[in-house]
Design brief:
Layout (H helix, E strand, L loop, with lengths): L2 E6 L15 H5 L2 E3 L4 E5 L6 H11 L26 E5 L6 E5 L3 H14 L17 H12 L4 E6 L7 H14 L5 E6 L12 E4 L6 E2 L6 H11 L10
Helix pairs in contact: 4-5
Length: 240
């Protein structure tokens, strides 16, 4: 692994009234140690997975492509400040990397197309053709295959969003291949039981405090899909 450990320092939290500093997982989790080159953050929406992923990426010096800022009905002045209370420990010095967010990807490939007007060679890093001319799923895999051949640390937020089950398996194979021999390290937020089935990966659950490791078969994602596949008719009898 390139990144050995991250540590949270609640004493540096500027508030306890606003998200994400009001989440108990961040108050009760001292550190997260990475034992595998592929790590998954899992849990329900709103548990802080993506927020922590972004904070770690920022602390690692990774640029996060953003959409144009827009006015919001309710503004949270602390929403992006978690990184200031996070410290990182490298195994053998800093390495480069990137952050992928499904909601930010369209903005990135639009800018890439604009840059390619002046320097078409830039597209050679992503399969040789414009990502804008491909389907969403195809453009994602072209990006992944091009970017992850470079040694580094990579953060992915819900990469399964536009991927079919077959293509999700392709991504799992890519994560496995690129993480061998210390080439790349991946930290991934996902809801996909296919992606989190990557052999040898470590799974951290955000559903209780502190954040703890969990076996794949014990995740709610696996349990729900298993129940659905074995008893599809009764699986629709959800409690509201």
């Amino acid at each position: 692994m390139h990144l050995k450990r991250i540590t949270l320092s609640p004493e540096k939290f500027p508030t306890t009234d606003f998200y994400p500093f009001n989440l108990q997982v961040f108050h009760k989790t001292g550190s997260i140690v990475f034992h595998s080159p592929v790590t998954f953050f899992v849990g329900e929406n709103g548990t802080g997975k993506t927020t922590l992923l972004k904070a770690i990426a920022q602390k690692c010096g990774i640029h996060i492509w953003g959409n144009q800022d827009r006015s919001r009905y309710v503004n949270n002045p602390y929403e992006k400040d978690l990184f200031e209370a996070v410290s990182v420990e490298w195994a053998d010095g800093h390495v480069p990397g990137s952050y992928f967010g499904s909601e930010l990807f369209r903005n990135f490939i639009t800018m890439l197309d604009e840059w390619a007007v002046a320097d078409p060679g830039m597209l050679s890093y992503f399969g040789g053709s414009s990502l804008m001319t491909q389907s969403h799923g195809q453009s994602l895999m072209s990006y992944f295959r091009g970017r992850y051949t470079i040694k580094g640390i990579y953060f992915l937020d819900e990469p399964e969003t536009a991927l079919s089950p077959r293509t999700q398996l392709d991504l799992v194979r890519l994560l496995d291949a690129m993480s061998r021999d210390g080439h790349a390290q991946f930290i991934v937020v996902t809801h996909s039981p296919i992606i989190m089935a990557c052999l040898g990966a470590e799974i951290y659950s955000f559903d209780s405090a502190p954040i703890t490791t969990m076996e794949y078969e014990a995740t709610e994602h696996y349990q729900i899909f298993k129940q659905f596949m074995t008893d599809r008719k009764n699986s629709f009898k959800f409690q509201i």
